[in-house]
Amino acid sequence: MDFRKEREVKRVKKPHKCFGCREKLLIGSNCFYVMEIYEGSFRPHYLCAKCRNYLEKNPEFTKLGYQQGDIKDAILEDEEWRKERERFL
Predict the structure, then answer these.
(1) What is the side-by-side order of every strand in the sheet holding 41-47?
(2) Which residue of 12, 25, 40, 77 has the smallest Cβ count within 10 Å?
(3) Residue range 29-57: average pLDDT?
(4) Which of 37, 18, 19, 20 is nearest to 29 (CA)?
């Protein structure tokens, strides 16, 4: 990741999709607008609060870079891992 900047959007004025989980961001919803340069390409995108919180808790995920839908996949993998762990404890 060469450059990353984000800002909170209190209410979106038109529908968007979260880049992290591909869920719809409806008009009036709260989200984050992210501008980054990744592998030489400018990639502006929106993130929902859930995906943004995941990135805050897992900073290495941001450093390595992520593609569309990767955050949702990582969240699901974490949930599966926790369930498996609880079964054995």
Answers:
(1) 3-9, 31-38, 41-47
(2) 40
(3) 92
(4) 18
- Per the CB < 8 A criterion, the answer to whether 46 and 34 are in contact is yes
For the CA atoms of the chain, what is the radius of gyration? 14
Between residues 78 and 64, the one the model is more confident about: 78
Q: What is the mean pLDDT of the chain?
A: 90
Total domains in the chain come to: 1
For the domain that residue 21 is a member of, what is the CATH number?
Answer: 3.30.1740
Q: End-to-end CA distance of the chain: give it in Å, rounded.
A: 38
72 sits in which H/E element: helix 70-88
Type of residue numbered 20: G
Residue 71 and residue 51 in contact, taking contact as beta carbons nearer than 8 Å: yes
DSSP tag of 18: B
